[in-house]
# Entry
Amino acid sequence: MSDKNSAAFFRAEGVLISRGVVHAAAWMASQRAGLRERTIRFGQAALAAPLFGLLGQNDRSLGNRVAHLAYRDMTEDRITVLAEEYVDDILDGKILDSGIELIKKARKEGHRIVVLSEGISEIMERVIEQHVRGVDDLVCNHLEYKDYKATGKLLDPVIGGYEGGRFIRDYAEEHGIDLSRSVAYAGHGPDLLLLSSVGQPCVVNPDFTLRKAAKEADWPVVDYSA
Amino acid sequence: MGIPISIRESYEGRHILVAGGSGFVGKVWLAMVLERIPDVGRIYLLLRGKGRGVKERFEKFVNDNYVFASMHDRFGEGLSEYISSRLEVVAGDVSKPDLGLDPEVAERMRGKVDLVINFAGLVDFNPDLRDAVGTNVMGGVHVADFVQSCEKAKLVHISTCYVAGKRDGFIPEQVQPKSPSGEVIDAKAELERMHTIIRETEEENKSPEVEAHLHKDVIARLAARGAEPSERRILDMVSRLKRKRLREMMALAGTERAKELGWHNTYTYTKAMAEYLLLDRGDELDLAIFRPAIVESAVEYPFAGWNEGFNTSGPLVYLAKTWFRHIPAMPGNPLDVIPVDMVCKALLLCGAALMKGEHAPVYQCGSSDRNFLPIDRLTELSALGHRKWLRKNGESALHKVILSRWDALAADPDHVLNIGNIRSVLKQVTRYLKHGLPEKIPSELQEAAEKLAKNTESSNKRLRQIEDVLDLFQPFTHDHYCVFECRAVDRHSVAEDDLRFEVESIEWRSYWLDVHMPGMRRWCFPAYENKDKEIYDPPFQFSLIDEVPATAAPAVAVADAHERTG
# Structure
């Protein structure tokens, strides 16, 4: 257990990385062995995009579940090797420097650094290892495997809905974190619960729902492009 | 947990005769013993050849071979003294009675040797039956004769798990009384049968009919070439063709008999026969049979990725890098791969147990029983390994972008895109390009067609070679499901960490991608591509010293080696 009693929670998508899970799942699907498999699974992953568009500002769980169907029947070996390639080649240049600066700042302020992500562990662990220094904990999605093959399901709890908020309350209790002294950075509608659980919420590159909420709650808003 | 055993203590001061120590496993075992068991007694290394020649051969393989690189680094100039004080090279040949040893040397060893390890074997799948019988069968018999003539020697006979032949399922650590086809084996009668097959094949090759046929063939060939058919030239060519034909007939005869009895090839058949012949000796011979499965690149000794250059998985893995993507393999079947250093550690344990009289009759050394690796996983890992490599090192954009993603798959041999069908299509294309095009076409088109025909023809030849390789491996990759019991090693628990057999510790993905494939890329693939083999360049030349001074480096070296190997 860390001696730090405040934490900085970062939602990876939109704050640290400019690509989301649909992009990762679609890319992975396009790299499967066999043309038929590639086509079918790519289609499945692509289907998640409109779902995120329609529901993403309120609940991303369904979109997440559909996107991750693209991994069905892929072996753990293939997912691990492709995840390495995805992080090294495809995400190269997609890591947001401003987000990395926010982490550095939070670290300097003595917060425990926790990254939350909708991405799968195979990708996110490498992202953290390669690009984001000084992270104490990573909370992300885990694929379910049976006989070395992904079933296409995510293990509970699926990160992406409102679990972020629930998670940090449990996390704070477990690690003796004082949430009123903690900070959180996120940019999607479903992160409202996460942001409202901490004393110092900060909205980063928000979508429409979150921007509106931030304005009403008078939370600071950071736009990287600004 | 088994009975505790210390490998170093078991070998301390023990004298060991090693036959066939210049092979892949033998070399690694030898280096491992010399480096990690410095208090071993004297190692007598039997090498084929005569007099000074064998000594020079040994010096060359210590100087040129990466197996000894870490010893060169560790002992530097002192390596000559270090090895010379522990090892003596003796000239001999296992295919000869009394191992072809000089009588004086043989007599000297008879009183001293504690353990004999017979690595000698002809590992070609379908060799000339005479060679296979000479080395694999009679070699084993002669080594056993020598062991029995010694005062206290015991024998570890190296065989192979694949003596199981066409049996399926769980293969226990036993010598089965029947052949895989179900015939009761009378080893002596079968050996006689082998000799009869050899005799009959030789007789048949000498027959006037064969002579006449070859004579006719030579004349036709010379006529086709427009060469002068002189009597001497004809006789020379006939004699050469006869020898070639005899080798082919011998290989065929061996394979036929092997298949009749349920073995896949002459190698496994002759290795199994040696086991039967040794077991026939009963209590007169202190024996342990050691059967490795498919021996591949080292995990850590002499260093990660070391292999000799030719190994079983090499051609299959190499194929996964080509445009041919349907590898005939049955998903779910194991390919029992075991790293060479693991084999050497299990073998050290087997020898130690045998010297203590606590051994099992048969030790199988594989991974399928303890850390299962299915062939389809291996195929995918190979494809992924090539993908990683080609993306960065591909010769062209085509290789980097397309070939790297051209995944090899485990497929049924009857798959529509199997190699036979691809060859047939290519053959038709070649025929059409050569003879099927209309006569009146522009000369540029004609030239292009001729060029293309040449390419398709040479591709067809290469595919033919690949087809032969796949046929050879199909029994192991597709037709049979064998899990080799590997539990005899559990009789003892080894005290030393660096000498413990721990096949469960292999994480196949990292082994395949980060150890084995880079190893094959360095040592195997250049051989398939007719490139030069990498030769080790030692910092100091090693040479065997006949008389090692009593006060020389060994004591210091021993202490040093102890300290370093922990």
Summary: The radius of gyration of chain A is 17 Å. The longest helix of chain A spans residues 35-55.
